[in-house]
Specification:
The protein has 420 residues and is an alpha+beta fold. The chain has helices at 5-9, 67-78, 149-161, 181-189, 193-202, 210-218, 225-231, 237-249, 252-258, 261-285, 341-351, 402-410; strands at 23-25, 33-39, 55-63, 82-84, 93-100, 110-112, 116-124, 133-145, 298-303, 308-314, 322-328, 372-374, 379-387, 389-397. Among the domains are: 44-127, Alpha-Beta Plaits, CATH 3.30.70; 181-261, Orthogonal Bundle (Hypothetical Protein Yqey, Chain: A, domain1), CATH 1.10.1510; 278-374, Pseudouridine synthase (2-Layer Sandwich).
């Protein structure tokens, strides 16, 4: 079964299943792809502020805008700086939790901006952290499919029940239609800051419109920067930030530092994600068992009823909890002590980078330590209904991508045209 070129560009070189695929399209309308965060039930939430609970927690509902731009939109409109723990795509309706980074005794019950609605759900003792996010619930509509739906879903369900879907990072991590975030991150890790900025500004995506392509061509000539700024649409705010600094200092390092810290971190993390995807692809090609833990494996422990990750330890044959094998992530504290380590090191050698390169002295805030990511995906509550279109619903543990599950079911020839 052929792999789309986009998949290979982001390190996804295999399928987990032999499902023929139903084809089809997703995200034709934003309300056909709905994501809702699930928080840890242990989170203590006060209905009203008191001496201990002074950080407002909102449910942020956004439509047709990504999380970073949603936070910026709210700040411009209200002056409030929100903190979110999950990054959500623009092409969807998403419900995620956001807290203020400062104490506020009397927060507004409701805030509405162009793309966002925030509803106050209570007050917490500290701003929300990633540790409080357990999972994401998805409700997705697939249209224009042409395969045997029931048979393909039965096969998919078998793999879900065995935890046998590879836990690749999804296309969104890399920019989807313009998959360059990991390429920019690679140049940052290699300290090639000029190349990083040039890639960000000038690399044109196959699916960009002609106006955007013209702008990127012009970005190659610094003498045209003033004209480029006049032509840039609002959506190119990050490119605008880079160009403004280049016009001021002509220093690509300073230009990168001007990007929001979440974006700077995302670039390096995307490169780390690319290395993971390639490593997981190789593991599957070489027939490593990614579902059953082996002696000396690092494993994530799961609570099946909630999809909650409850810990990470060496494989324990006597453990009563579900354990899923994990692959080490590239980083300056890389763990070279398990059966997947050699694969990751092989990919690093092919990339001509070393683990220590991920400690970036001049950009310490984007340095990545490493860590682990589960090799297979944990999915629960999978169901579907068929009525002209196909609606599927499921819950994934945090950090897993719905598009990776959909990729196995749909087997799109062109993921971007299919709505991914």
């Amino acid at each position: 079964m052929s792999i789309p070129s986009l998949d290979r560009e982001v390190g996804i070189e295999v399928y987990s299943t032999k499902i023929a695929g139903i084809g089809g399209r997703i995200k034709q309308e934003s309300d056909e792809f709905i994501v809702e965060e699930i928080l840890d039930s242990s989170l203590v939430l006060a209905a009203k502020s008191d001496e201990e609970h002074l950080y407002p927690l909102y449910l942020l509902k956004k439509d047709s805008i990504d999380s970073n731009h949603a936070v910026k939109e709210v700040e411009v409109a209200t002056g409030l700086k929100l903190k979110v723990v999950g990054l959500k795509d623009a092409k969807a309706i998403t419900k995620q939790y956001a807290s203020l980074s400062r104490r506020l005794q009397d927060a507004k019950d409701k805030i509405v901006t162009k793309h966002c609605t925030l509803d106050l759900v209570g007050y917490t003792s500290t701003p929300i952290t990633k540790g409080k996010l357990v999972a994401n619930r998805f409700s997705i509509t697939i249209n224009n499919f042409d395969g045997n739906v029931e048979q393909c879903i039965d096969e998919l369900q078998e793999h879900i029940d065995k935890n046998a879907l590879a836990n690749f990072y999804g296309y969104q991590r890399f920019g989807s239609a313009r998959p360059i975030t990991h390429l920019v991150g690679r140049e940052i890790v290699k300290r090639n800051f000029r190349q990083a900025v040039d890639l960000f500004l000038c690399s044109s995506g196959e699916y960009e419109n002609e106006h955007s392509k013209e702008i990127r061509e012009m970005c190659a000539d610094s003498y045209k920067f003033a004209d480029v700024l006049l032509m840039m649409p609002e959506s190119m705010d990050l490119e605008r930030t880079l160009i403004n600094e280049l016009m001021r200092s002509n220093d690509p390092f300073k230009a990168i530092r001007r990007l929001p810290i979440t974006i700077r971190r995302l670039l390096v993390q995307a490169y780390q994600s690319y290395i993971f995807n390639r490593s997981l692809s190789i593991a599957i090609k070489e027939e490593y068992d990614i579902t059953s833990p082996k002696q000396n494996d690092i494993c994530f422990s799961f609570e099946p009823s909630s999809a909650k990750i409850t810990g990470m330890n060496r494989f324990d044959a006597g453990a009563k909890t579900m354990q899923l094998p994990a692959i080490p992530l590239a980083g300056y504290a890389f763990r070279d002590d398990n059966r997947f380590s050699m694969i990751v090191k092989k990919v690093m050698e092919e990339e001509y980078v070393d683990m220590k390169d991920f400690y970036i002295k001049d950009l310490q805030e984007v340095s990545v330590e490493g860590g682990f990511r589960q090799a297979s995906m944990f999915c629960k509550d999978f169901s579907y209904s068929l009525n002209g279109s196909l609606q599927i619903r499921f819950v994934l543990s945090k950090g897993s991508y719905a598009t990776i599950l959909l990729r196995e079911l749909m087997k799109p020839r062109d993921p971007i045209i299919a709505g991914f």
